[in-house]
Amino acid sequence: MIFLFKGLILGLAVAAPIGPIGVLCIRRTIANGRTSGIISGLGTATADMFYGCIAAFGVNTISDFLLHIHSYLQIIGGIYLIYLGYHIFISLPAEKSSKARSTNRLEDYTSALILTLTNPMTIVSFSAIFMGLGVGNTTGKYMSARFLVIGVFLGSILWWIILSELVNKFKNRFDQRKLNWINKVSGIIICTFGMYSIISQIK
Question: Residues 88, 91, 96, 97: is their CA dihedral positive or negative?
């Protein structure tokens, strides 16, 4: 069970830095409520768990392939970030029907999942951490690796729940003008992340 606890701490540590997904989660929580933010975080946590599994169980074929196409995935992710950023920048806060909210929940999950999956370098981070913890593709350690990966998922989703709850507590302080301003700033920040992601891969 110690590996479950270690995974929980690692999941929190990996998820906590505020990057494009963090900005997206904050903006969605303010605009659409904490459920939207939590579901976005669930998409990210799912991707973290996927890469954690590859690293923990030593699936070298998949790992090598993803790292080989890393640059292409980063560019695709950058383009998608720019698309999302532009869409957020031009959007206006508005009341949504229950059908629209239901559709957006799926979009919240899949968009966060895809964006996180476009950064396979996460495998390298997990591999280094897992090696340091003595978890590898060897007999007798699969149970430890399993608990570690589950812990990473739980730690990651715990962070997104905490973040969404905190943001949700303050969202009522934002009027229509402030919400429009948040959309503009969030859109610019996310577009900037996207442009950096593309430029950093152009050699």
Answer: negative
Q: How far is CA 189 from CA 73, 165, 185, in A?
A: 20, 22, 6
What is the C-alpha radius of gyration for the chain, rounded to an integer number of angstroms? 18
Q: Which residue has the tokens 């239901």?
A: 102
Half-sphere exposure of 202 (CA within 13 A, CB side): 8
CA neighbor of 25 nearest in space, from 40, 14, 13, 15: 40
Query: Cβ–Cβ contacts within 10 Å for residue 61, how many?
Result: 9
136 contact partners, CB below 8 Å, separation of at least 6? 58, 130, 145
pLDDT band at 93 (very low <50, low <70, confident <90, very high): low
pLDDT tens digits, one per residue of 119-160: 877 777 777 766 666 555 444 566 777 888 899 899 999 999
